[in-house]
Amino acid sequence: MSLYLLLKWVHILSSTILFGTGIGIAFFKWMTDRSGDVRAIRIVNERTVLADLVFTTPAVIAQPVSGVALMLVGGYPIHLPWLVAAIILYIFAGSCWLPVLWLQVRMRDLAQRADHESLPLNTQYWRYARRWFFLGVPAFLSLVIVFWLMVFKPSF
Fold first, then answer.
1. How far apart are CA 127 and CA 145, in angstroms?
2. Collapsed DSSP state (helix, strand, coil) of residue 80
3. Main-chain phi, psi angles of 38, to 5 degrees
4. Predicted TM-score of the model (pTM)
5. pLDDT band, very low/low/confident/very high, at 9 (cuts 50, 70, 90)
């Protein structure tokens, strides 16, 4: 196996983990929040924070590392319009993801407190949940466009 194919495999695998974990977390967390079941919300928030630590974070790191290596080994100049667009969109998605991480930790803490004290979730939790959702939408759409750019490599 060539170095280029190995790097490509790492890049595709990490993008699949990043995208799959992100959409999976979003779906289960959003659906559980809608249930209103404080215990279930606590458990899913705990697992969400864990999944981001174990799966998403390594994939977020592997993406630019393998991407730059692919550029160098494959001879792609960084000024290609599709590559510049993909990098900008990836940075944008990351700028949405970082506050999402903070929100997830805060929501986990609020859900743990509510569950342990047998209280309903407070308004702060629901404010955080709305922000989490509205940050996730542009991040998700950005990554969909990055996938498109990586596959089609348009010349614009």
1. 28
2. coil
3. -60, -40
4. 0.93
5. very high
